[in-house]
Amino acid sequence: MSPQPQAAVGAPLSRVDGRLKVTGKALYAAEHDVDGAVHAVIVDAGIGRGRITSIDARAALAHPGVLRVIHNGNAPKLPYRDNSGSNNPPEGRRLRVFQDDRVRFHGQPVAVVVATTLEAAQHGASLVEVSYDAERPSTDLHEAEPDEPTRYARGDADAGLRSAAVRLDLTYRMARNHHNPMEPHATIARWDGDRLTVWDKTQWVVGTQTELSTVFDLPLESVRVISPFVGGGFGSGLRCWPHVVVAALAARETKRPVKLVLSRKQMYLGTGFRPSYEYRLRLGSDRRGRLSAAVHEMDGETSSYEKFTEGIMAAGQMFYSMPHVRQAYRLVPLDVNTPLWMRGPGFATASFVIESAMDELAHRIGIDPIELRRRNEPNEDESNGLPWSTRRLRECYTVGAREFGWHRRSPKPRSTRDGDWLTGLGMAAGVYDPGRFPAQARVRLDADGTAVAEAAASDMGPGTYTAQAQVAADALGLTMRTVTFRLGDSLYPPTPPHGGSMTMTCVGSAVLDACNKVRRQAIELAVEDEDSPLHGVPADDIVVRSGRLHVQGNPARGETYQRLLARNNRTHLEADGSYAGAPEPARHSYYAYNATFAEVAVDATLGLVRVRRMLGVYDAGRIISPKLADSQALGGMVGGIGQALLEHTVTDHRDGRIVNANLADYLVPVNADIPDLKAIYLEGEDMDADPLGVKGIGEIVQVGVAAAIANAVFNATGRRIRELPITAEALL
Ligand code: MOS
Q1: How far apart are CA 329 and CA 337, in angstroms?
Q2: Alpha-carbon distance 59 to 62, whole Å?
Q3: Which of 343, 349, 433, 701 to mutate to test the pocket of ligand 1 (most atoms within 8 A of CB)?
Q4: What φ, ψ does residue 524 adopt, rounded to 5°?
């Protein structure tokens, strides 16, 4: 078959929805104009653990405009049917809003006030008197009792360590982080009889639809979720949180559409977080740095009612070659909200530890950190014996070292100064396991030569509208201007979560499939049509370019979609497309990789760390949309700078209260913290990965960044900081 010309894919296009966004015409969840909507404000628990003994709503109800106060004393019992399987909550029993008197974490929703105005609802919420029987909560990862571990082992790690010439025994601690997207989570809920419509901030339209159908015991088709724009997510929208249920419940009880927007403070209480960890890593190697054994022991927090796990074990099993590995991953149940995946989930945590430790090992035995990594590069995935699909880390190192000027790094720590500043270079490698799950899409080519593709995907910022349209345009042989991609509605064909680096792979492959089918329908129509200039031409010899079908190599012989459809009295052609997910059984071990380089300056007196420049080199398969990929890569580096130097959710263990639940005290990088950032993508596609040859870029871009910075801080100062974030205090 003649390959379709690729004009849109690979072109550095700007976002097709950019103008809508910068002119305020892109509507985010809370901005939809739903007739007659009233406002709801959640009352948060003021204790960290215990029971509600009474709720006095009289003052709130007396406030003008307040319509209703709903709490465990008056809320109807909600079905919370068993999971249907497609909303994938963690093991456990999810938080059921207003269904009992238990307080499981500080800030849990204990009541909701519904009022005709936002101000009345807010004031009403402040008037609700909640009395408690308080107990002391357990919120300290380092003092609570862990569950039984999940284990992995190959070889004999203890014997391997004992016989190793070089041994390291290192313990690292990573702070809890919150996602903090710019747009707060928000929901508008409306009932029309037994049908529920929600306008919601979500990274998973189908997951939210499924969860609401489960909670209210409705057929899936009776719940519609609309989410055309998402103002950042980083993972916080990968689950339907209790506030969405609260909005739907409040709307049902008041028989009015209800709008509920979380405050910035409530974004720390009700939408998950990257869990804190304590991670002990023991490494054994020979004197040349060839690894023989590793023992990984990680403790990560979860809630008392759900067991949240993430991919923190995989990197330790497959990243470096060694015969002996033992791992134990323990969950520590605490009186906190349930954590959730946050950018680079699991891998961004594990990589900080493994890549810091590799830097420590390189220093101990006196070899270059890149050379150490090369010496331990595995030829296959040693956890399962599978060949790599593509693994081009060596090339990442070569390109990165050259482009970053790695040869200028002094191997001796604390030996390079720039006035009062100690400067240093560091690097780290990264790996991420992109998900591959079934997805569907639909495309319709109209007689006017324009096409619309649809899938129930999200776009939290990476540019799904644009990148999917690029795939569709090339597969249909149309220009970008004549193709529209629609997303964010559960009426469209279902897709997996918009997260885990899955959207380009899974949705893109389904869009490609649907568009290929429509193109083939058009070609077959032309070939069989005696009045077509393409009549009788072998179908495989025909391509479509700019809406015109023609013989490959002979552009003069052909006709447009419009002429073809008009002559055949066809209003449109359409097709459903699908992507089946990862092949079973797996034939390849499939990961995205990077090498990240950082230069830092540390004030010799004050301990202030400033990142001066960074470079990320990515083995992420084919890049559909280079300009949007850059936006991902730079954003991932910014996220990594936050993880390395600033972000830290602080809990007061006396009562379980988060003390910095605001953007003044929870520090994130601002423009002044962001230096010269650059991204390079290794060219080429991974055709073992999926029909598009992409591996996804959204998650891998944050993996390894914190370690690269920590390693640069060591190179600059000679101080090894094993706790994130790296603060000035730690460096004094
Ligand atoms: Mo990403 S943590 O899956 O939004």
Answers
A1: 20
A2: 5
A3: 343
A4: -65, -40
Q: Which atom of ligand 1 is nearest the CA belonging to 500?
A: 3
Question: pTM here?
Answer: 0.97
What distance in angstroms lies between residue 497's CA and the mean position of ligand 1's atoms? 9
- The ligand 1 site (C-beta within 6 Å) comprises 203, 233-235, 238, 341-343, 345, 499-500, 699
| Per-residue confidence (pLDDT) for residue 608, from 0 to 100 | 97
Can you say whether the dihedral through the CA atoms of 724, 725, 726, 729 is positive or negative? Answer: negative
Which residues partner with 572 through β-bridges?
A: 446
**Structural domain of residue 472, as residue ranges?**
18-25+437-579
Would you list the DSSP string of 399-452? HHHHHHTGGG--SSTT--EETTEEEEEEEEEEEE------EEEEEEEETTS-EE
**Residue 458 falls inside a structural domain:** yes
Q: How far apart are CA 698 and CA 710, in angstroms?
A: 22
Residue 141 belongs to some domain of the structure? no
637 and 538 in one domain?
Answer: no
Count Cβ atoms below 10 Å from residue 143 Cβ, excluding itself: 10
- H-run or E-run covering 620: none
Q: What is the pLDDT of residue 720?
A: 98
Digit-coded pLDDT (tens) for 479-521: 999 999 999 999 999 999 999 999 999 999 999 999 999 999 9
Q: Quick one: 448 and 431 in the same domain?
A: no
Q: Which residues of the chain have pLDDT under 70?
A: 84-86
Residue 29 pLDDT: 98
- Report CA-CA distances (Å) from 633 to 197, 348, 615, 678: 35, 14, 10, 8
pLDDT of residue 84: 64
CB 620 within 8 A of CB 681: yes
Phi-psi region of 366 (alpha: psi -120 to 50; beta: other; left: phi over 0): left
Q: Report the complex ipTM.
A: 0.97
Q: How far apart are CA 577 and CA 511, in angstroms?
A: 6
Residue-wise pLDDT for 320-349, tens only, equals 999 999 999 999 999 999 999 999 999 999
